[in-house]
Model the fold of this input.
Amino acid sequence: MNISVSISNLGLMPIYGPFIGGTFRDSAPNGTFPAIDPATGEHLADVARCGAAEVDEAVRAARAAFPAWKATSVEVRSALLLKLADAIERDLERLTIIDTLDVGRARSEVRGDHLKAISQFRYFAGAILTYEDYGRPIPNGYFVARREPIGVCGQIIPWNVPAIMAAFKLAPALAAGNTVVLKPDENASLSTMELARHIAEIFPPGVVNIVPGYGHEAGAALTAHPGVSKLSFTGSGEIGRIISHAGADRLVPVSLELGGKGANIVFPDIEDVDAVVDNALVASMYCNGQSCLAGSRLFLHDSLYDDFMHCLSVAAKRLTIGAPMNETTRIGCLVSEKQGQRVLGYIDAGKKEGAGLVVGGGRKSVAGHEFGYFIEPTVFEVRNEMRIAQEEIFGPVLSVVRWKDYETMIQEANGTVYGLSAGVYTSSIATAMDAANRLEAGSIWINQFSNLATGVPFGGVKESGHGSEHCRETLNLYTHVKAVTFQGRVAAPWYAV
Ligand code: ADP
Done:
């Protein structure tokens, strides 16, 4: 595919100004930053570098839109979310190509991101219709506990799966009747800015506002803005802490989805080694490993260790590394040189720490894409206390731990600061149940990694954050309870009864 021809046919805007009050502004006084294809270095578009002034304008627009949006019926909100899902679906291939160029991941994977986004908008369009208030009789009357939208939500998302992240944030917030100011990541703004073009056609002005820019500028201004009543963030623990402090300063609720170092545990009684190998690779290499939910630690039982490792290495070497736009590519490039250097630094640290490199470990050159950081699927044999088994690498690097004793293994699997995801492979229901009970993670996937069927809660414990997304309960994160009690006639104050 001739990529330069395709860029000019994509209908990209040359400059994406902030999207405020239903329209794109020309740009921002601070200027713009370039959106670069991380595989080729090619310039795709320019994006506004928003600062405090644009964020302030966006929050004002969102506040102005809030009363009317809050007053819309759930049927209306549901219908608009469905319209947005349909618009994405019609635009699926174009959005997929734009995102693939912007983030460097394999096109087939990125298409999956947009399909997930569609399912999120449809799911919350449905969920809000049955998200009912509750109440019951009380002496001489009754109460109703109404779930009301909170107000303007400030939402900040990372670069790894931008379409999924935008949908995870927007769908529940809008369904619940909030208005939004969303900041995409500076490494991957384009698909969110393109989503804004669809939003402009569907939602009333000001209901969704998008302020692209850097974290320390647009992001910091958004978290500090007194007009924002709720913060939701997905990204690193380091920035999650900053956001949490900002929320504490203003006493607004914060939900956080942060890093992970998922344990994928293989028990000796598995029946289909190849299927588990596939899961282990998808768990660690999907998204080029740039995923918080990655199963980046594999706990392999001693009795099958050698055979399994052989199959795993053969399969890892077979994963096609190539141009992100090729449909057959499984491993594309990392999002930036910075990320590439970081991952190579971890690989180096693993070698220096004495981890055994089984496969991969290097940067690969892909013809026509020499600019990109294509990192080979890399498998290390490690001890759980090593740095590469403890820290989130966000690259295609799998750390394998051999285990014999169940208690020690569970302790080690839980022995990180994170608690986002874990996988368990076994033929025994009793084994699966016990491990699921004892693993400290927000998601335990038994016999299929990353089983995120629509509506399955997703969120972390420990330093992986708090608040479940992707499920009905997410609506609780975007509402507060107003309890209204009724008495048939004016009664004496309760303390006088
Ligand atoms: P990653 O490690 O995945 O790059 P980060 O946590 O650095 O994730 O960034 C995730 C998001 O947080 C991005 O949109 C980024 O711009 C934003 N961000 C970074 N620093 C800040 C900050 N100080 N305040 C608010 N947002 C920030």
